[in-house]
Design goal:
With 126 residues, this protein is mainly beta. It has one helix at residues 20-26, and strands spanning 7-9, 14-17, 31-37, 42-45, 49-54, 60-65, 72-76, 84-88, 100-104, 120-121.
């Protein structure tokens, strides 16, 4: 992770989400992240600071930030996705090695944002 004191190890695939909660959390048009089963997630160093948030769905989650630089690193304790951790692409030291595999909540994509050449889902894929 760039400049962050928090380090993680992972195995997963990348998604791009256009839902309102992800847009707000990322500060952009979409959030790019990957889900990791808790058993495959290792916090290598640092102690992130968690902020509890209740999404539009009414389900809670913890957004975890680097306490030194404020970078959002991962989301945990997701009531909507028990047993999963969502790691943000921007928290990686070298994000070039992985590419998104799908876009979801495309019904919320802004008109000026061009779709990627990937499977498209108007809502959450099953």
């Amino acid at each position: 992770m760039r400049r962050s004191q928090v380090r993680v190890q992972y195995r997963s695939h990348l998604r791009r989400c256009h839902c309102f909660d992800c847009k707000k959390a990322s500060g952009g048009e979409a959030a790019t992240f990957f889900g990791v089963p808790e058993d495959d997630f290792t916090l290598i160093s640092g102690e992130p600071k968690a902020f509890h948030y209740v999404a539009q769905s009414g389900k809670g989650l913890d957004r975890n930030f680097c306490p030194k630089c404020g970078a959002r690193v991962f989301s945990s304790n997701l009531e909507g996705f028990p047993g999963m951790i969502f790691v943000t692409l921007g928290s990686l030291d070298n994000p070039e090695g992985i590419e998104p595999v799908l876009e979801m909540f495309t019904k919320r994509r802004l008109k000026w944002a061009k779709p990627l050449d990937l499977p498209q889902f108007e809502n959450m894929p099953s």
